[in-house]
Amino acid sequence: MTDPACKACNGSWPSTDHFVADLGLSKVYLHDDQFFPGWTVVVFKRHATELFQLAPTERFQLIEEVNLVARSLAETFDARKMNYELLGNQLPHIHWHLIPRCADDPAPLEPVWSVQHGPVRLATSTLQDRIQRIGSGIARLR
Ligand SMILES: [Zn+2]
User: Fold this and answer.
1) Which residue from 84, 47, 92 is spatially nearest to 65, judged by alpha carbons?
2) Among 125, 142, 101, 136, which residue's Cα sits nearest to residue 20?
3) What is the CATH number of domain 16-105+117-141?
4) What is the pTM assigned to this prediction?
5) Backbone torsion region of residue 39, taken as left when φ is above 0, otherwise alpha when ψ lies between -120 and 50, otherwise beta
6) How far is the CA of 2 from the centre of ligand 1 (A)?
7) Which stretches of 15-123 are DSSP H helices?
């Protein structure tokens, strides 16, 4: 079940070189913007736009996959708090933004969307290192 007009279904987002792991119902990618280190996206594999459209067993497994990634990110980045964002206003296809909020967070009381900043794009070696660290953390907890 895919929607060819959907960026998540047609493969134009997220970038395949940011791929971290395939968890079964979802795939994990490092977010393009690393202003908040470890910002990760969990994308449901098939096209659906609301949690209530999923079968209960599917919804349960998806939440378990999101939980696994969140726990791994919290440990890998020593987060003081994890943020979970399931919005879909710009891209309705179900995807979570998981953002570790760390001790040096510039605006710990604000949602990331309201923190003005230039996007931080990692150099290839740093990008690969970060993907490897997140992937190892997920593999260790699976
Ligand atoms: Zn889609």
Assistant:
1) 84
2) 136
3) 3.30.428.10
4) 0.96
5) beta
6) 6
7) 56-76
Q: How far is the CA of 46 from the centre of ligand 1 (A)?
A: 6
**pLDDT digits 0-9 by tens, 41-59:** 999 999 999 999 999 999 9
What is the per-residue pLDDT across 76-92, written as a single tens digit (0 to 9) for each? Answer: 999 999 999 999 999 99
Summarised one tens digit per residue, pLDDT across range 2-27 is: 899 999 999 999 999 999 999 999 99
Q: Is the pLDDT of residue 1 over 80?
A: no
The domain spans of the chain are 16-105+117-141
Cα 28 from chain centre: 6
E runs forming strands in the chain: 19-22, 26-30, 40-44, 81-85, 95-101
CB 100 within 8 A of CB 74: yes
| Cα of 74 from ligand 1 centre, angstroms | 28
3-class secondary structure, 109: coil
**What is the token pair recorded at 118?**
């230039």
